[in-house]
Amino acid sequence: MTDRPDVPPAGGSGPRLAHIAAQARVSEATVSRVLNGKAGVARGTRQRVLAALDLLGGERPVRLRRASAGLVGLIVPELTNPIFPAFAQLIEQALAGHGYTPVLCTQLPGGATEDELVEQLEARGVTGIIFLSGLHSDSTTDPARYTRLTERGVPYVLINGHHEGIAAPFVSPDDRAAARMAVRHLAQLGHRDIGLAVGPARYVPSRRKAEGFTAALTEAFGPRQREAGHHVRHTLFGVEGGHAAAVSLLDAGCTAVVCGSDLMALGVVRAARQRGLDVPSQVSVVGFDDSQLIAFTDPPLTTVRQPVRAMASAAVDALIEEIRARADGDRPPDRHTEFVFQPELVVRGSTARLPGRADARVSGPGGT
Predict the structure, then answer these.
(1) Would you list the DSSP string of 243-267?
(2) What is the radius of gyration, based on Cα positions, of the chain?
(3) What share of the chain is helix, strand, coil (3-state, %, to 5)?
(4) Mean pLDDT, 10 residues at a time, over the chain (368 residues)?
(5) Do 205 and 161 form a contact (C-beta atoms < 8 A)?
(6) How many CB atoms lie within 10 A of CB 365?
(7) Is 31:24 a contact under the CB 8 Å cutoff?
(8) Which residues are CB-contacts of 289 (< 8 A; sequence separation ≥ 6)?
(9) Is 74 in contact with 105 (CB distance < 8 Å)?
């Protein structure tokens, strides 16, 4: 099976059974049973056939068009960073699997604010809301907006950024562990002068990464390395922020940089090259996220992968639980729960052994 759906014959009114069967990896008889609404087909198989029909541009029979269980808002900060569309797609797929219709809301510069988007969603009678990297991740914002949302009876779940003042389910990657993974990898390659380029300190994920970074330096090189806190640069998210941080870190003598996002890492690579430095033979760079195209950059980026699929599924499951609890007139005993998911280091071509340096003796769990 290829990644590209089979193309229906020219002049046809839609994909044939054979094309749908090949795409779904089932028999034509199974496709026929699904399209005719017959029993005896497993739910997963039925979903696979319908997904194949959608991919091939076919129109679902009227009998298979189910009524929506309700609207669910998904508020994201932007779509220019590829990690956010990746989250949005998986969250929307999971919601559709539960029968809910997703409504994607994006905050654009000069456009509607998060609070305004919430008002618009409530006016349309949404059943619940999922916030991705929203105001909840900013420790300086007033959490009362979420308390008011709870009082109005709207279930919601928050992804990326835990806030003690908000009684709601949270879904987060382990940002501290992500920074530790990156530092340990670089230390094992012989790097000692390691910098961190991360977003503003008021954001919880940025603060947690900085904490993990500092702890990892201590584990790798001893307590004196805590003085290397001056190698932490809090800057703007994105390529330009990564570039600005890299200029400062390279001036400070860093031979490796850990970044708070893949886009920031691309900014670091650009800054290094503008100085005539080769990545990775002279400067190693580690990103964070592992969005879809990062494996195809030049060089392919070593990064810490967010478990996006697992996090998206957990967020939707938590929201469905909230919705059902409210429908039954119940409230879960403890809504202030953070589900923390472990990231994964993906080693590619942007990190390399520092010439003339032996491997570090890294202490701590899993050390050598």
Answers:
(1) HHHHHHHHHTT-SEEEESSHHHHHH
(2) 24
(3) 45, 15, 40
(4) 39 73 90 85 82 80 70 94 95 89 88 93 95 95 93 94 92 98 97 96 97 93 63 94 98 96 98 97 97 91 97 96 79 73 97 73 39
(5) yes
(6) 7
(7) yes
(8) 81, 82, 83, 261, 262, 303, 304, 305, 306
(9) yes
Residue 307, CB-side half-sphere exposure with 13 Å CA sphere: 18
With contact defined as beta carbons under 8 Å apart, do 220 and 360 qualify? Answer: yes
pLDDT for 65 equals 63
In whole angstroms, what is the distance from residue 170 CA to residue 130 CA?
Answer: 10
What are 346's strand-pairing partners? 303
Q: Please report, as a single letter, which amino acid is at residue 355.
A: P
Residues 189, 165: contact at Cβ < 8 Å?
Answer: no
Query: Cβ(35)–Cβ(64) under 8 Å?
Result: yes
Query: What are residue 257's DSSP bridge partners?
Result: 195, 285
Could you check whether the bond before residue 299 is cis, i.e. omega within 30 degrees of 0?
Answer: yes
pLDDT at position 16 is 85
- The three-point CA angle 99-26-60 to 5° equals 40
**Six-digit token pair at 114?**
């998060």
Amino acid at 135: L
